[in-house]
């Protein structure tokens, strides 16, 4: 029987609260993991350490020494490995015990005893595969289109919210809130405050979009499943934002634990040549502060909601995208809980 991800079974409710397994999740900005340093993180309700090997490759391990369970995050960075500070046990990037200085040749050496996650760096962020079966190959990861397009210029925005991860994703699947919560922003003041919506299926996921307005406000969002779950949306820019195409956001939300979420927004624009330079200058000098103000409105609203706010709702037609998302994740959580229980 293959080894499994969890140190014990997880119920469907626990998976729904702390994040889907068997997929890639954004973990942290790449520049958080510097050469010669060890970074401790909590993701999907478990503790991890990240470090760069001498060749720059990022490694991600469970924060638990296989000897006595001491935190590897308190250890020493030794180029291609971490040495636990408690008794000096050295663990390599794939989780194999490479040396036990206190007793060379003991039976711990050569065994893969620490959980190691596959990682990739994409668009200035580190993504990791949180698999159920530790011996299975990770699913293919498709880089989100805006991050792979040389004609697109982007900035990564990272923050953390004290709100469940699903609230953050559902907020993005709710375009109508832009016309109310963000009505006084520099880009979402226009358009009607009434609308009809539809779901439009795609090979990778679905669009949730207004049927009677386009290119005026936050009028559509696309949810995509390509190894990693992410959303794409577009917001029109006023002329004062300089030359170039519409303003886009590629977003991901990764559970830290049941009540805290790591938020990744790549703010992008399709611009080349001198227009790219103007866009990047305007963003850093003027637009970035305005975008943070809009994001702060979302944070305050979601952090102010009770953790069980979704248990006492009265939904209507504008919430079709949210309903679709919840049903999908609930079914996935139940399937993964069964896999863990059987294993």
UniProtKB/TrEMBL annotation:
Organism superkingdom: Bacteria
Protein name: Iron-sulfur protein
Alphabetical UniProt keywords: 2Fe-2S, Iron, Iron-sulfur, Metal-binding, Oxidoreductase
Keyword Glycosyltransferase attached: no
Classification via PANTHER family: 3-KETOSTEROID-9-ALPHA-MONOOXYGENASE, OXYGENASE COMPONENT (PTHR21266:SF60), IRON-SULFUR DOMAIN CONTAINING PROTEIN (PTHR21266)
A single GO molecular function term of this UniProt record: monooxygenase activity
SUPFAM superfamilies membership: Bet v1-like (SSF55961), ISP domain (SSF50022)
Domain Rieske as annotated: residue spans: 24-128
Organism the protein comes from: Gordonia neofelifaecis NRRL B-59395
InterPro entries per UniProt: Cholesterol_7-desaturase (IPR050584), Rieske_2Fe-2S (IPR017941), Rieske_2Fe-2S_sf (IPR036922), VanA_C_cat (IPR044043)
